[in-house]
Design brief:
The chain is mainly beta. The protein has helices at residues 24-30, 32-35, 293-304, 312-320; strands at residues 44-49, 52-57, 69-75, 85-90, 96-100, 105-109, 115-119, 132-138, 141-146, 151-155, 161-166, 175-179, 185-192, 201-213, 216-233, 239-242, 251-255, 258-262, 268-272, 278-284, 334-336, 342-345, 356-360, 366-371, 376-381, 385-391, 397-405. The protein contains 4 helices and 27 strands. The longest helix is centred in the C-terminal third of the chain and has 12 residues, at 293-304. The protein is globular, with a radius of gyration of 21 Å.
């Protein structure tokens, strides 16, 4: 079972900024190749605003029947009991590496799916993890970020330890986002509180994207709205923070040399460069965000199921006293694939894994949605494959490599 709020791996890819004003007709001509069919795709408006490219897609660019699809399982991996998988990547040599928080270890699988090696255990020593949170790779070098120890550990393609890099100074509550092509690493963490000490109601803090070079804090690249929460006074008058129903949080990932940020309020993303300057705003016509009673009930049930039995009724009481928004979060996770496309998942309203992923071209144009298999947690995306974990009804997690289908 996945830890709430865990960020998952991203693959380095290329983001291309568009800095010119085109008419919808011009863009239709430029993007006809994306549709895979003859005839103009749906309208896209690209305009410039103070040097920032605004890309607005009113409908998918894929023509009917031209959508990408996730296919069948192509590799059978050796069955291994794992818990709280937070990442999996496929290296350039065909090795697959799976990372689990439950066992605080990495599992290396050969290209044919055979388990080759288990690396790591719970601890503070070299090659050990206390609370591993993020798995990434550059070529055949694997790196793991440990949230509790505030350090990066790198391994080679065989699972041998390369080095350990401690973050100096540590960033409070830091979550890893990814690695930029220049070798620097990005983290998202606490910035500053914009909430008055005695204010009550629904609040939202600000988080910062911070860059580290060789383990040393270099600069703050950007800030963005963080997680929503409820702040209320208890019976003693002390202010307490509580989980909000359908709380929005910051979505972020690396995309080539750019960083994609989202506040989950609208179908809109902000793309900034490594210098912190805004490059693009991507907008699209996604699904209706209006919440129903069934949505709220399903969400509450899913959250309550994640805590021990003796905590479930108190948590239900908290949710029952919480305000319910009219609209849910607009998306959840983001992944960049090996070809420079950005994948953005829907927000799973009743828990579980997202089924719909919206795909964006390297220029920011919305191509359309891809449907993932039920209870399939997408973790890494190659040029002709997708890698993820299938979660069954008993919360057992099984690694799956599937084909990625392109219409002819």
């Amino acid at each position: 079972m996945r830890r709430p709020g865990a960020l998952l791996p991203v693959r380095e890819s290329a983001a291309i900024g568009v800095a010119h004003l085109f008419t919808a007709a011009t863009v239709a001509g430029l993007l006809s190749a994306c549709s895979g069919k003859d005839g103009p795709p749906s309208a896209v408006l690209v305009r410039d605003s103070a040097g920032v490219s605004i890309i607005e897609s009113n409908a998918p660019q894929w023509a009917a029947g031209a959508e990408w699809r996730i296919g069948d399982v192509s590799t059978q991996f050796d069955s291994v009991d794992v818990a709280d998988v937070f990442g999996a990547v496929r290296l350039d040599n065909g090795t697959t590496v799976l990372a689990e928080e439950g066992g605080a270890r990495l599992l290396y699988f050969s290209p044919d799916g055979a388990l080759k090696r288990s690396v790591g255990r719970r601890g503070d020593g070299p090659g050990e993890f206390r609370l591993p949170q993020f798995l990434g790779h550059a070529g055949d070098t694997v790196w793991v970020y440990d949230y509790s120890l505030a350090r990066l550990t790198r391994f080679n393609a065989e699972g041998d330890l390369i080095d350990i890099v401690n973050l100096t100074p540590p960033l409070p509550s830091a979550l890893a986002l990814g690695r930029l092509p220049d070798g620097s690493f990005l983290f998202m963490g606490q910035w500053r509180s914009n909430v008055a000490r005695n204010a009550q109601g629904l609040m939202r803090d600000t988080v910062a994207v911070v860059r580290y070079r060789d383990g040393v804090r270099a600069d703050t690249v950007a800030t963005t709205p963080g997680r929503e929460f409820l702040q209320r006074a208890d019976e003693t008058g002390r202010m307490v923070m509580m989980v909000a129903v359908f709380a929005r949080r910051a979505s972020a990932t690396t995309w080539g040399e750019s960083i994609v940020l989202g506040a989950q309020t609208e179908h809109s993303l902000r793309v900034v460069g490594p210098d912190g300057r805004d490059r693009q705003v991507i907008r699209w016509s996604g699904p209706d965000l209006t919440l129903t009673t069934a949505d709220v009930t399903g969400w509450v049930d899913a959250q309550v199921a994640t805590v021990p039995p003796d905590q479930r009724e108190p948590l239900r009481f908290v949710f029952a006293a919480s305000p319910v928004p009219e609209r849910g979060p607009s998306y959840d996770r983001m992944l960049a694939d090996a070809s420079g496309y950005l994948w953005v998942s829907e927000y799973p309203r009743a828990g579980g894994e997202p089924v719909r992923w919206d795909v964006f071209a390297p220029d920011g144009t919305w191509l359309g949605p891809v449907r993932a298999p039920d209870q399939f947690r997408l973790l890494d995306i190659g040029r002709d494959w997708v890698l993820g974990v299938r979660v069954d009804s008993l919360d057992n997690e099984r690694l799956e490599l599937r084909t990625r289908r392109f219409p002819k």
